[in-house]
Specification:
Helices cover 6% and strands 37% of the residues. The chain has helices at 12-34, 62-67; strands at 3-5, 8-10, 102-107, 122-123, 127-132, 136-141, 147-152, 167-171, 174-178, 183-188, 194-199, 204-211, 214-219, 224-228, 234-238, 254-256, 259-263, 268-273, 279-284, 305-306, 310-314, 320-324, 330-334, 343-345, 348-352, 357-362, 368-373, 395-397, 400-404, 409-414, 420-425, 435-437, 440-444, 449-453. A hairpin with a 4-residue loop joins β29 and β30. The radius of gyration is 27 Å and the shape is globular. 46% of the residues are buried.
Length: 454
Amino acid sequence: MPIISKHGLISRHAISRNGLMMSLLAVLMAGLSACGQTEIILPGERIAVIDTSTANILIVDDQAAGEGAGLPGAVLNTSFMTPGGSVSHRGGHFSAELPLQRAFSVRVGISADEGTDMAQPVVNENAVFTITPGGEITASSITDGAELWTADIDPSTDQSQVSISGGLGLIDGLLVAHAGKERLVALNAATGEEIWSMQAPHFLVGGPSMAAGFIIVTDINGRVYAFTQSNGEEVWNRIGSQGQTRITGAAYPAIVDNDLIVAGGDGELISLNLTDGSFNWGDTLVPKRLVTALDSIADITAHPVHDGGIVIAVTQSGIMVAYNARTGRLIWEQPLRSLTMPWLAGDTLFVSTSNNELLALRRSDGAVRWKTDLPGRYNANEPVVENALRHTAPVLVSGKVLVANHRGEMLVFDAETGSSEGDFSIGGSITTDLSIANGTVFALDRSGRLTAWR
């Protein structure tokens, strides 16, 4: 029954709560008094509860290594329309006459700030197209580098560089581009004449990726936009995930048939319907165990790869995954980090890691066929060293894996074994991924110089 006090009725539950509060206060006071006492240090060896010394270490699988790379035959491609050569980013095996010799080197624009990446050049049968900071597009002859035309697509007075010099994409004689600002333009690839332009609400970063009459871009806030190829009218847009901390660069969406794969801030990977932007499936790529401070930054800058059957993505925070493209079911994952797109050729994925290793993985299950050290390699469990050497994504050319770096080196490896076949100087600092078409490898350095090798 209730207990009556001079203030009225007090329930037994209230008394119980008061007693509990007094007990907690006593414990707190005892804890505070203990703070003034000498800490007791127990003798014996200290053993870490979580051993990070072997985390993120990939072991070569003997069976995968013994199978060989399973490469398709090398083909002479006449265009390189977007990163990975096609809008799916599936890479392939391209041919060129080796060893490579310098064909030409020309200046195509101004240099990039330290925190800005140059957009990857795109190529058709006549020209290689580049965009440098400030919105300057140059079309250069693939034969000798002679300037065919130039266009300035950034009339704004804002000189800030937002991690990228812009984005380029080719389709059906159309060159679509942005300069990392709000303006998206379509130019005649043969003449540089502007066909249409439109103004987005915010700075554009990822893309353009183009297929089936659609142009897909992402903005700095993570929103995905679909525009028409014919006149740049907006078809749909969808909110995405904006990372709280961003890494230099931006991922181009991948497209196969009606599947649109978008990777972006906070490790978000989503599959959308290309036609209307409706959601198919998605996942957030966060490593299970944080080893270094970088592991907590989940922003994805490596272009996702869609080969029709699986979707592959990799983050710099320490996870690489493969999903069933239709259902989104996880097929395999590996603990590695990269800022650059994996290169898929036949049964093998080639990837250069953030800690400067080059690996070949079996497509079906991610098993390691081989791995080799790149210059400047450091332990994946250690914090990034200041001025760490940075390598581009690999490309596969006539049975060789080519990787460039910001020390101005081109490295050559055997695609079957990973063994080094030497290196040579390519001049300026290269952080932009290599492009290849018509038997020629194109490299754009940070000073705004384009060099061709064939």
